Amino acid sequence: MKKFDDTLPAELPRLDKAVKRLCHPDSLSAVWHNSAEGAAMPSIEDIREIMSSLAAAIFPGYFGQTQVRLDSLRYHLAANLDSIYHKMSEQILRGFCFTCEKQHAVCPPRDSQSKNAALAFIDALPEIRRLLAGDAKAAYEGDPAAQSPGEAIFCYPSLRAMLHHRIAHELYKLGVPVIPRMISEMAHAHTGIDIHPGADIGEEFFMDHGTGVVIGETSIIGRNCRLYQGVTLGALSFLKSSDGSLIKGIPRHPILEDNVTVYAGATLLGRITIGRGAVVGGNMWITSDVPLNARISQEQPRA
Amino acid sequence: MKKFDDTLPAELPRLDKAVKRLCHPDSLSAVWHNSAEGAAMPSIEDIREIMSSLAAAIFPGYFGQTQVRLDSLRYHLAANLDSIYHKMSEQILRGFCFTCEKQHAVCPPRDSQSKNAALAFIDALPEIRRLLAGDAKAAYEGDPAAQSPGEAIFCYPSLRAMLHHRIAHELYKLGVPVIPRMISEMAHAHTGIDIHPGADIGEEFFMDHGTGVVIGETSIIGRNCRLYQGVTLGALSFLKSSDGSLIKGIPRHPILEDNVTVYAGATLLGRITIGRGAVVGGNMWITSDVPLNARISQEQPRA
Amino acid sequence: MKKFDDTLPAELPRLDKAVKRLCHPDSLSAVWHNSAEGAAMPSIEDIREIMSSLAAAIFPGYFGQTQVRLDSLRYHLAANLDSIYHKMSEQILRGFCFTCEKQHAVCPPRDSQSKNAALAFIDALPEIRRLLAGDAKAAYEGDPAAQSPGEAIFCYPSLRAMLHHRIAHELYKLGVPVIPRMISEMAHAHTGIDIHPGADIGEEFFMDHGTGVVIGETSIIGRNCRLYQGVTLGALSFLKSSDGSLIKGIPRHPILEDNVTVYAGATLLGRITIGRGAVVGGNMWITSDVPLNARISQEQPRA
Amino acid sequence: MKKFDDTLPAELPRLDKAVKRLCHPDSLSAVWHNSAEGAAMPSIEDIREIMSSLAAAIFPGYFGQTQVRLDSLRYHLAANLDSIYHKMSEQILRGFCFTCEKQHAVCPPRDSQSKNAALAFIDALPEIRRLLAGDAKAAYEGDPAAQSPGEAIFCYPSLRAMLHHRIAHELYKLGVPVIPRMISEMAHAHTGIDIHPGADIGEEFFMDHGTGVVIGETSIIGRNCRLYQGVTLGALSFLKSSDGSLIKGIPRHPILEDNVTVYAGATLLGRITIGRGAVVGGNMWITSDVPLNARISQEQPRA
Amino acid sequence: MKKFDDTLPAELPRLDKAVKRLCHPDSLSAVWHNSAEGAAMPSIEDIREIMSSLAAAIFPGYFGQTQVRLDSLRYHLAANLDSIYHKMSEQILRGFCFTCEKQHAVCPPRDSQSKNAALAFIDALPEIRRLLAGDAKAAYEGDPAAQSPGEAIFCYPSLRAMLHHRIAHELYKLGVPVIPRMISEMAHAHTGIDIHPGADIGEEFFMDHGTGVVIGETSIIGRNCRLYQGVTLGALSFLKSSDGSLIKGIPRHPILEDNVTVYAGATLLGRITIGRGAVVGGNMWITSDVPLNARISQEQPRA
Amino acid sequence: MKKFDDTLPAELPRLDKAVKRLCHPDSLSAVWHNSAEGAAMPSIEDIREIMSSLAAAIFPGYFGQTQVRLDSLRYHLAANLDSIYHKMSEQILRGFCFTCEKQHAVCPPRDSQSKNAALAFIDALPEIRRLLAGDAKAAYEGDPAAQSPGEAIFCYPSLRAMLHHRIAHELYKLGVPVIPRMISEMAHAHTGIDIHPGADIGEEFFMDHGTGVVIGETSIIGRNCRLYQGVTLGALSFLKSSDGSLIKGIPRHPILEDNVTVYAGATLLGRITIGRGAVVGGNMWITSDVPLNARISQEQPRA
């Protein structure tokens, strides 16, 4: 073989230098995260996979296998649920360990806590499916372009957003940290609909088109409500504590009672109540309560 | 080997119970779909793959293989088109069988109908490419930040949305159910632009930025129009039949004549006509006709 | 074996015809691109892979491997950076050759130019990480729903958009064509936030929710600014040259000084300056300067 | 864009010519196969996948998932068996259609026949596992280097060959064409052990090392036999019919009674019987019966 | 975030040390290879992929797609051949550059030489298919267990070995270095049949079972020959030059004339000629010529 | 949606029954393995991946990446070694837990033991590379058909077998259970060469062709030995203890001193010594010592 030459080319010192700087505590400490007990970080990839499995469990035939046989459905569903249970336990555990960092305290036994949360989540799946079937019905009935509830399941962003939200909200209620937000952001990335996992949303909910919808953490939405694209249910202002930092967790988003409709681009801010059956027109800016069955709209367009 | 212990742990009964409930007709019937003749459901994955193949067929070099040789292009294009034809036939068939369910009737021979639709679609590809090349030109000419039409093909959401729309619209015209909506929702998820497959859009169309644009099913758009982000071409209200259900399929969205420009955030609702060469300003709310070459804008900003 | 029958079925002539038409210069020339020196086109897939590697290099543990060991981090980081360097060089080269087409001129030696640009980019990574750590801090401090800066890194669209932007902007400053736009469009597709690579954005920048935000090419944003969903920093009008074509590259977007907040849906157009500490209310339409610390909001909502 | 040049380079005519010649009936007819009813050919890839699933079903933990939980094993096993059943039915059907070609006759309804064969095969799985567990025990007891039966399952070519053989033999007995041979050849490729699916092999069978072992179609092997590498159980000569073609299917390979041992490289040819408990020495060439408990070995080595 | 601790654990110095030693010229120089012009090494993965494509081109339906349509076969074959041509050119180029190292000379223009070799190889494909169809026929006629020539194509190691050999031999005749050996070793790994690419093998060749067959570089085999497992066509001794090194390339392996049969385990050594129609018995050791139609067998077995 | 029918088809009861029987302790207990501490089983897939990484670490450019840059080799090697270290630790741990089952005892702390073994293995890599470089040189010098040592690394089964063996032997010496056998069986499956991990093999070892070679657990081979295909270094007989079970671990295989050559098909059995420089002819059957420099061959062939 040829004598080989190990002269280093010019670019190496620069790469070496970049490595050194990126591994230096001055740079690394700003982005480094120590999970409790050296646990792995939550995995975006694994959560995405769990969501795919859940979609197949809730809507068989639409997601996952395209040809589901009713006879052997229970075989595959059982295997799928068991996998979901174990993978979800693992991610919940990572979620607990991720946030544990801030507590500067000895960790409680997280493993059984995670398994319990995952089991409680599995228990809730039939109810989650029932709610989503209602959401599909609402989409079909609310959109003149819809041909069937099945079409809504297949291709309506509202359904996809609610699939993620109803799952994330269940985990949120179980006190699971971080993971619900990661799930809701997956829906946001896919649909442009940003629902905080904390929002409490009633049956037969439909968002038409959906892009740009924002529903804040402490929002409460009744039965059979409908939003159009670009609607914001937001906070009016943020309370700060005496040291100037934001006070977190205070109810600060709107309450929509049953049968409320909000048209495209409307902005509803603060802990206000929109009365049952009210209709809020497009592009409205609302910061105070709206009475029962009111129809609020802006002045005549100037065209 | 060790004697093994088949005592079941506590979580199993709960998983068993969840399986049982999710397979119970009470739960399953709300989401179960029987396609005609036991056909498989349309496959999101397969349609996504078909769209990738179509992108490579229409814009060789930009999508698919990054190094295309002009000499052997016809080899690969032919193989690609044949695959597209067979895969598209299959998905069209599944689309027919999916919606067939509602008709409670004996199915006509769907297989040859599907193949014919797929062939007619293939026939339309050169025209689809011609229209998309015009859309790329419009993007380049309409955006001062664009460096070349090629850049528009590579990275403009407008082009990606129109690639999906012109394909979905062709299938829509061929009477293919469900599949066009699935395709348009793929574009919506990717770009935030929601164009119903039924919309009839003329040559050299450009949407700058695009996020939040909504173009309804019965919209008609002339040549050389331009929309900005957040523009809605929507319906003003929905007609209901005497039994209270929505009447579907009625013309209810705007008509834009040639050379119309609509700036960001404007909302155009109902079967109105925006005259040739008109310019609609940002955030406008329009529910009646706009004359030829009109320039509609809101009062002075209050800043 | 059976005698085989090579009679062609009816569909073949139609496929043949489609192939012929799609390969005909009349059709192909409208979409065909000749990169200089027969180079391959930039590859969306490869750039996506580079972006994943960069995310793992900048935020170890959050992206890429979920269990990073501090001790051997430098091993993997070094290998990763070297791969990034070589892949980035290749894509930069393709970018140069892609745009070279327009120049109708002899190409300068692109290979070493590309490597130099890639090395300069690698040099900038520690600074890019520092800026992004600041953006994570801003997100945590600015959103009452945020539980930790780590949560922001994991699941805030603002962080994802800025990860792409700060990388794309660095390449933009290095004069790399096309690639920065492809990167920024990846962020746009994922977040609904459309930031042109040319925009100059200061430290600790945060966009809440983000869907529909548009930040134009020549925008300048100071330190510690905050935008909400649907905010546009756009151009008021486009200058045309005497031959009617757009003049490209002129400063035409707003300047935001330090500590500016712009609420949801506001539209800021033209080369105006928003003074330090100013607050622009939701849905405002601004086309002229806003003074220091001003609070601009629309009239009372009409609810 | 640049004017593009569609002059074809020199290599194209040669590729065109090769395509033409390879598609010409003169060339194609020699390798073309028409399955009955236009069915797809059996798929090597799919059969390989079925074999992986079967290995996981028979030896849980060793193959497939490395961490199997006893509690939920039945979930995954049921899902796995259902998949195996459907995939196996499909391949059996393809096997029937593949060989049907030779019969120049109208096909009986193959679909239900295939499903029945697949179900009968599933029925046989517990017995196949029992036999393979016996083979693992025999390997452990027969090889002084073996540390446990588990080690034999993990890494003994004898076990891998028997896993394939006992499956292929079951399909062979069910009259399934082609597929059993494809399965046995997979084992041959992996282990160098070539057992025809027709061979009838008793319990607790072990082949040490195994490379080069050949066991012919009509061989019969009793309980507790052991072969070493390079042993052939072959035919002495082939009977030809009056037209000179081979007569197929006649018993022509050896019978080994219980407890027979054959050492490395021995060749046993023809329909001979090796009596119970006999031991055949290495490199022996045997063409006639061997009595009960005989010990046959070659003369002293000439070293 | 927690203060992080960058104390290195004990294992790092040992890994560091191993890296240092493995990168030290003392260790690296023994395995380092400099291809000419810094070319990449031949890629086992890419060659494997080329072989799969070739199998699909030669035996459509058996390998690659399992459902080939006669009508559109030419589309896919053309695309496949073009890919094979370009990938093969690349690997041939790497082969030239790989061996170029030994020549300590300025390289001739390898690129066009590689393309020419690849084109010549493509030209030979119809003849290669013709020969392989003959090999399949020979397998079917020679094995009483074979049910059809198609079965031989699907699952006979003889066919797989000859598929690789006839391809490797063509490249060998074209003077391509290294690649033919890599291809023949792929067949060897899969079948246990080791044929040197240089061996010249006539039509309708069949090896039954095949494991352990060795056919040396300068072997010449006539039409219609048949070998059984474990047959060696080897060299008797190696000539050494005056400096003690082996003289390479001298004819040193047997010549088999037409219609020769060699039974299992026979060893034929040296440049001897086995006359037309001769039959060599199992386990024979042959080092001199065998006359026309001779039947050579060992003495009666001693059983 | 259609009313759905959950009548079960006939095949379900049979699948249910098969599941029940395969999960019944009577069937399951024969193949069930309980690793200590509920650890996962060793993973064939993971070990295969480790072997690929090791091949790339030892022979850069031949395996793994085909274009290795000398300058940044250390980056990738370091990352690769760290991954190998962690994956190897995990598999070693699983190996310990796998065999622990037989000991009916409390496990020592396996985790640190596994890491130590993995580190010791990493330490040995430079020496393993040195030995393999010698094996490549021996292949090149010993085969007149070899063109370069590089060719031997690329495509000689001898090198592939020794790559696996020298790694497996190192782990064997470190007392790692099961894993070494799994590695050696991978080589056996690929090459037909079956070397027990316990065999002690000197420098510059070469096996030409190799198929069918068997080298037993307690074999000892000196420097510069050469074997041909089908050579067996085996045990003559197995000692049994008073209870009839095999006594394991006793030296029972041949010792080859330096410079020994054994031609194809020779069988060497028992704890005999083949003296330095001896040559054993093809197909010989040797069960007693062979003196220094002896040349043992069978009588003249009977041709």
Summarize the structure.
6 copies of one chain form a homohexamer. By secondary structure, chain A is an alpha/beta fold.
What is the strand and helix layout of this fold?
Six copies of one chain form a homohexamer.
Chain A: H1 11-23, H2 25-28, H3 44-58, H4 73-100, H5 110-123, H6 125-142, H7 149-155, H8 157-173, H9 179-191, E1 194-195, E2 200-201, E3 206-208, E4 214-215, E5 220-221, E6 226-228, E7 232-234, E8 255-256, E9 261-262, E10 267-269, E11 273-274, E12 279-280, E13 285-286, E14 295-296
Parallel strand pairs in A: 1-4, 2-5, 3-6, 4-7, 5-8, 6-9, 7-10, 8-11, 9-12, 10-13, 12-14
Helix pairs in contact in A: 3-4, 3-9, 4-5, 6-7, 6-8, 7-8, 8-9
How would you describe the overall organization of this protein?
- The structure is a homohexamer of 303-residue chains.
- By secondary structure, chain A is an alpha/beta fold.
- The first copy, chain A, folds into two domains: 40-192, Orthogonal Bundle (serine acetyltransferase, domain 1); 199-303, 3 Solenoid (UDP N-Acetylglucosamine Acyltransferase, domain 1), CATH 2.160.10.10.
- Chain A contains nine helices and 14 strands.
- In chain A, the strands form three sheets. The first copy, chain A, has a five-stranded parallel sheet with strand order 1-4-7-10-13. Chain A has a five-stranded parallel sheet with strand order 3-6-9-12-14.
- In chain A, helix 3 (44-58) packs across helix 9 (179-191).
- The longest helix of chain A has 28 residues, at 73-100.
- The first copy, chain A, is globular.
- The mean pLDDT of chain A is 90.
- Chains in contact: A-B, A-C, A-D, A-E, A-F, B-C, B-D, B-E, B-F, C-D, C-E, C-F, D-E, D-F, E-F.
- At the A-B interface, helix 4, helix 5, helix 6 and helix 7 of A face helix 1, helix 4, helix 9 and strand 13 of B.
